[in-house]
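@channel sequence for tomorrow's demo:
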Amino acid sequence: MGFQERLLMRKIKKTADHKTDLYKLKKKKLEDSKTDAICSKESTVPNKINDKRRKECDEELQHKRQKLCDGAIDKTDNNETENIPLNDIKETEGTERVTFDSLNISGPTKKAIEDMGFTTMTEIQAKTIPLLLSGKNLVGEAKTGSGKTLAFLIPAVELMYRLHFKPRNGTGVIILSPTRELSMQTFGVLKGLLKYHSHTYALIMGGADKKLEADKLSKGVNILVATPGRLLYHMKNTKDFYFNNVFCLIVDEMDKILNIGFMKEMNEIISLLPKARQTMLFSATRTQQTEALTNLAVEKAIYVSTKVVGVADNITQGFMVCPSETRLLTLFTFLKMNKKKKIMVFFSSCSSVVFHHALFNFIDLEVMCIHGQLKQNKRTTIFFQFCRAETGILLCTDIASRGLDFPSVDWIIQYDPPNDPKDYVHRVGRTARGEESGGNALLMLREEELSFYHVLKRALKDVPVWEIKLPYNLHDIQKKVETLVARNHKLNLMAKEAFRGYIKAYESHGLKSIFDPSKLDHNLVAKSFGLRYPPNISDSDSRHRIPNRRERRRMMEEKSLYAEK
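structure tokens (generated this afternoon):
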């Protein structure tokens, strides 16, 4: 090829790359707009507020807050409600039923709770709501699925109502959640609770358009649901975000926030917020980090805990002993047998979720997936899709193990082991949400990992667990899966990345005495990903290498071979 031809080809390639970049930019803007439309749907924000008008109202608001704390003003503005003795609530047992009508709350809040279908309080709600309505700082601990969301949302909305908080007063309540999905879920419950109120509310989280969020905040958002990183960004960079009147800080799933690595952000957020505020900290488990944050955020707090912290009684638990080489086929067979049920499968890495999602859909087992590497609009769509579905299979990482309320989940399958019994409790808690529902949980273990079952038995005490066996011979399917993964170039790359992700997650496991990486047979583990031979673990950047001529020819053959599929 001559010089002119090479120059022409270079210009053509440059033009094509430019058009590709424009297309990607246009697609990204479209995805961001879809995400913002989903997240801000039906959220209410007023017109932009004059700063002078806002500052004039601050003194009046502070006066009202002082009166409310002193008990000088009416608590509800509703003569029909009656006070329930605080001592009776604190001594409430899980077997004794207390209705929401007996609470000293306003009419609009009661009507919204009735529309949501709730009549009686759970144990954590009965113990915490009266204390929070009186303005106390509180640290709440209860097992997952016990109704913690309503336990902190009802007092927050009610205190906002009593103070006659207006949009011009800025933000009064901040609710922090560890993940975007949990923030969206909390936002949905808040929206239902504010059905008959006029207060403004909004959701800000990673993955959404920062400019649109800044515009909402500048107009005055009374109740704000946020993730820690995005909240700190707006507190530092959004000039019109007025949070000087924050009188209530709520931290949901506090231990998860700290485990993800938000300790530094939480310290900065607490230092920027007003010190004269009410603080509510909720979690399903206690750790040293949560106690450190509690000491930093709250000076004097009441600790409230339900008597049993662990797996709900209405969950049927089981475990399955499965060799390394048949793990993939065992999971596939179990999902095929129960494909008319609603199932969640937990993996230890994002790459493992990506591989199993591609493989199962390729071999006619329809599944969905959610993990941290998905774009936000895709995560949001899948989250609501699985919530609305009556049946379906969701492959996920621990990003979906905390606080998310997926209705009517029949099975929780832990394909990869959790880091400790607390993570086991959170994963299993995605089923049997509520006191009248039930569910099943399955843990898949190798023979050398059976001692983890005894660790669970000691941690969860008298929880019955039995072994589950499948009546199928799986060895005949293994060769077909290995042939498929070997011939399909994309599946082969995904399988290798999933293998590396699994090994790295295994090496970082907290219980080294049980989950010892040196005891893993890499040849057998590779078969659980459809690989005939284990790939090089250190060669993690192989997927970014440009394929050679032989690989390109094989890719073209695969496209033609599987075009009909």
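heads up for whoever presents: Residues 72-95 have pLDDT under 50 and may be disordered.
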